[in-house]
Design goal:
Blueprint (H helix, E strand, L loop, with lengths): L1 E10 L3 E11 L15 H8 L7 E6 L2 E2 L4 H5 L17 H11 L7 H9 L2
Length: about 120
């Protein structure tokens, strides 16, 4: 089950990206997010995956509060992006480690990361 309660995100104290979203997706249901550019679709997904913090409100997956218990919540979520983008605020090693973990590699040593970076 996926649920949001008054989920709100304001960027830079002025840009309202998501305003009090309340939704509930029950087990077995399929939910599609549609909307114009700027409607808050990407922000909603980023909040549900705990990539960003909500300004107000909260979200749950299987009754686990996502912002408070992100690692436990992520055990119940999967995300496949249409476009893979590197995070500008991460180093090359941090990006590689992040995507390795998304791919299910639990323990990747620094040496393995450095070896992979050196292959380029």
């Amino acid at each position: 089950m996926l649920e949001t309660r008054d989920l709100t995100k304001v960027y830079d104290h002025t840009i309202l990206a998501l305003d009090k979203l309340n939704l509930k997706v029950e087990p077995g249901e399929i939910y599609v997010v549609l909307g114009a550019n700027g409607a808050g679709k990407r922000t909603t997904i980023a909040l549900l995956l705990n990539f960003i913090d909500p300004t107000r409100g909260t979200a749950f997956v299987n009754d686990i509060e996502i912002p408070k218990f992100p690692l436990e919540a992520k055990k119940h979520l999967a995300y496949v992006s249409e476009n893979v983008e590197l995070y500008r605020n991460f180093t090359a090693r941090q990006n590689l480690e992040f995507f390795a973990k998304l791919g299910g590699w639990k323990k990747v040593s620094r040496e393995e990361l450095d070896e992979t970076l050196g292959r380029g």
